[in-house]
Amino acid sequence: MPTDFSFEVKARDASTGARLGTLRTSHGEIPTPVFMPVGTAGTVKALPHEWLESLGAGIILANTYHLYLRPGPERVERLGGLHRFMSWQRAVLTDSGGYQVFSHRDLRKISEEGVSFRSHLDGSSHFLTPEKVIDIQRVLGSDIAMVLDDCTPYPCSRADAEKSMELSMRWAGRCVSRWQAGSVGSNALFGIVQGGVYPDLRARSVGALTALCPDGFAVGGLSVGEPKSAMWEVLEATLPLLPADRPRYLMGVGTPRDIVRAVALGVDMFDCVLPTRNARNGCLFTSEGRVLIKNAACADDRRPPDPACSCLTCRRYTRAYLRHLYMSGEYLSAVLNTMHNVSFYLDMMCKIRESIAFKSYGKLLAGMEKWPE
Fold first, then answer.
1. Best exposed site among 54, 155, 331, 348 by fewest CB in 10 Å?
2. Bond into 33 cis (ω within 30)
3. How far apart, in Å, do the first and last CA atoms of the chain sit?
4. Which residue is catalytic, options 150, 271, 306, 347?
């Protein structure tokens, strides 16, 4: 699938499957492993883009489903495309919206042709096909687009997981055909591996996607309620099957400890709402574990949220003040907490990349229990 997008593995850790690489897009180079802050509706909640840039975020995630409903792809196109509309000149990955349709199960109906659903905003009726999802993402102008997939819940019977996976693979084929029929651009298209918690179904999914030759491979359908042991079983069986020369993206995962472990298995890209959502709920990720800023123990605490962190929040504000903001319902609470949590995740990825470069990832992995769960 010829594009200007490229991925290069620059180093591998000798004792694990961890990889150091570079994603090249028309909006800059991104070192991997990378965490992509989630900007569902074209914004990472509570963070101005200038702050994201200052933290070193090279790529963020936006969501096709939400942007399709509001403000609409046609309006985004009239205003110069997603990057100009957002005033964000670094890379953007757009999810296809399959997970969002999954999360509104009572509002949607799936068929071979596509998915019909009612908007969670106003109840209006819509119909998305694999082809339409590709067209929308082309209009948005994201650097990395995703195929439309069907995400199964947990628990899910083997028969239902197989049926869903096979539908997702047929949809992936239609997405690739639509993609290839369009003008060749600088953006890329990733496939999504499905198959529930059944490793053999995941292997069949990998085989089907590999034949389509997408620019990268995502592992979807995890972190949907299954036990962590099942998630790791799937990843340990699936990741070695993926082409070594393509980026590997684990969708929707996860905690800092999850990310450290997944990197050891060879994952290159991550996204998750945990740092931003938890921030708005008063939960901070720190080098000392999770800090619940709303707890009474923080009321007279003059320490920064994380003594080991150099973000703006930790340089200037105390736990006592952050608790006061949270308990008072001040908007600044979400802003400062989010600044810290996103900074923590991006700094963690820097440490991960450094340890791979210095061939010491095994040591970082051995101390995995130090990272927040």
1. 331
2. yes
3. 38
4. 271
> What's the pTM value of the predicted model, to 2 decimals?
0.96
Q: 235 with 199: CB under 8 angstroms?
A: no
CA neighbor of 190 nearest in space, from 220, 231, 164, 152: 220
Counting Cα atoms < 13 Å in the Cβ hemisphere of 93 gives 28
| 110: its two tokens | 């799936």
**Catalytic-residue membership of 95:** yes
Q: For residue range 76-105, what is the model confidence (pLDDT) as tens digits?
A: 999 999 999 999 999 999 999 877 776 666
Residues 6 or more apart in contact with residue 338 via CB below 8 angstroms: 44, 45, 46, 47, 275, 276, 279, 280
Strand pairing of 144-146 and 125-128? unpaired
320: helix, coil or strand? Answer: helix
Whole-angstrom distance, CA of residue 169 vs CA of residue 205: 7
CATH homologous superfamily of 6-272 = Queuine tRNA-ribosyltransferase-like (3.20.20.105)
Alpha helices by DSSP H, listed for 19-157, are: 49-55, 64-69, 73-78, 82-86, 98-103, 130-140
| 270 band by pLDDT with thresholds 50, 70 and 90 | very high
For the chain, helix (H) and strand (E) counts, in that order, are 15, 16
The answer to whether 219 touches 250, Cβ cutoff 8 Å, is: yes
Strand bridging mode 289-292 / 283-286: antiparallel
Closest CA to 221 of 243, 197, 238: 197
In the structure, what pLDDT confidence band is assigned to residue 268 with cuts at 50, 70 and 90? very high
- CA 272 to chain centroid, in Å, comes to 5
Residue 258 bears catalytic tag: no
Domain limits, CATH 3.20.20.105, in the chain: 6-272
278 contacts: CB under 8 Å, gap ≥ 6: 284, 285, 341
Catalytic residue among 95, 150, 258, 347: 95
Separation CA 18–CA 54 (nearest Å): 27
